[in-house]
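Reply to dn_fold:

You asked what the input looked like. This is it:
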Amino acid sequence: MTKNKYNEILKLKTLLEEAAIPFIGRNVYDGYQIVIYHKVDETVLCDAIEHSFTYGSEVDRLEIQGAITLEETKDDSVLGYLTAEEVFKRFKFCYDNNVFIYLDKEVKK
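and this is what came back:
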């Protein structure tokens, strides 16, 4: 991935690498996508994307699918205009707990 006008996706990539959270990254249109997979069955837990057609790209913010709350899913299946730090918090929670829905609290195991 080369540095471009989409810096938040690059910040998210760095945060995930520092936390040793595995992901797949790929170029999409004029931007980039990061995908996190479930630890056990390898289904997609969540993904972040930033390119010219995503919610928030005009202000260098990320759009995500997965890692959103049940309340947020009432409006749409994606959520945009998020910073790398906001997305990282959500992705880390979902990855650590093997869940698709972000609860913003610890899951009882």
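The mean pLDDT is 91.
Hope that clears it up.
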